[in-house]
């Protein structure tokens, strides 16, 4: 049997080869090297590894979404019996307004309690179908689960008709005495609530928090009482009542031509330098802002461009203030409306006018309020007053309570 031929092995340089020879490239065509390496691509595991590397690369290079908000308050675990919204009704129109506020808060998902202050000579006993005040009080209690708090009628001052727009009542300050609550938000009832306000209950501790009356800036820095976030305390209640009674009985001189109500004056005197100031863009917008051309006081600067849609989207509530136009539960005198209506930006008053977004928003705010008044209270607006107002003839009897009259001079915001 012949000797078996030994296999031919590739040449390997020994350790005694020179350093230059050790790093020489083998005498093998590059194409042969490539072909040999490509054979490995036919194996499934190679493609699996390649696919996983691609997926890993894409995953690491993806644009990460913004981190979700981390709320410091779990609303589902809050004891909402400790927090409340308050309203006061000194007349039939304001009773309906209070229910509109409660209805909106309920629709927006607010979980806080509701408190309604009303004259003690009213009752929830519905005697007939025309007893609308009692019906609305009963609705506040049954449908909106409101705590009804009767108040002394002596505290109800001027302003009891549909044109009740500058009333000297201090009834809203009674919320300071409701110490069973940890915090109360009082909202003027001549507003439209646009978004949930429950976040205000969890502000850092402060006796009161209020927005600025920005329309007075930069000349006067006043706090506006259209929204008050307060911590009830008997000490504060007694102090405010003493100050209010001193004004009521003439023991303190008050400037009756001031452009703010007594309650606003009292709040500024006591808390003007200590209150937490809320941003007025969210919590102090007034409808009159859509009628002016100069928005620097509202925007707080001179470089920002006025965008009515953005402003409305940011606002949590809007307060109706367009004197001498009546409040929204009174129809507009057409003669007055022509002067008050917001003007378009381009070619106003012509067939080719445009840029009328301010007007559209302004009218929609009023229309929405009247629609809610009809839907919630089943009440229509009061007829428009005569304009210009007719002077009262001497000797004639006063109109019956609740009858519409021409609007009296009121502050720009109340």
TrEMBL record:
InterPro entries xref list: GNT1/Glycosyltrans_8 (IPR050587), Nucleotide-diphossugar_trans (IPR029044)
UniProtKB keywords: Transferase
Transmembrane segments: none
GO molecular function: transferase activity
Region (Disordered): 383-414
Name of the molecule in the record: AlphaN-acetylglucosamine transferase
